[in-house]
């Protein structure tokens, strides 16, 4: 069978017939060893590339984590600022409500005074007294109103 195989190879087969089988086996062993060494080196390069890729992915994950932490910190600070602003608004509204209640109480007291007195009669009797008080009170109310609107 060996001879038939060498016959199929043509001139190379004639050369191979002349070479002892141990030399052919040695060459074959060297070729196999070189091929295996090449396979081993390629495998090592693939492992090193995989490790490098894993390292890059880990660094990217760390960078992403840092970005997420920074974004979370910014959101937390924004939420705290919003809460402070909401509390300030709430305090301002409470202050306005108290001021409004005071104004309503003053209005009720003044309406009571006007309801209890006949201004027409008082105006006819002492026109200067009523006019001065009415003008002073009107001026004070306008001042209070302009301050409240600012």
Structure notes:
This protein is mainly alpha-helical. Helix 1 packs across helix 2 and helix 4 crosses helix 5 (127-149). It contains five helices and no strands. 0% of the residues are buried. The chain has helices spanning 2-8, 11-18, 21-116, 119-125, 127-149. The mean pLDDT is 84.
Please describe the biggest sheet, giving its number of strands, its sense, and whether it closes into a barrel.
Answer: none
**β-sheet strand percentage:** under 5%
Helix residue percentage = over 70%
Radius of gyration over C-alpha positions, nearest whole angstrom:
52 Å
Terminal residue distance: 113 Å
Low-confidence stretches: none
What is the total domain count? 2
Overall structural class, as computed from helix and strand content, comes to mainly alpha
What is the overall number of helices? 5
Number of strands: 0
Tell me the quaternary state: single chain
Average the pLDDT over all residues and give the rounded result. 84
What keywords describe this structure?
0% strand, 94% helix, 150 residues, 2 domains
Detail the topology: elements first, then pairings.
Blueprint (H helix, E strand, L loop, with lengths): L1 H7 L2 H8 L2 H96 L2 H7 L1 H23 L1
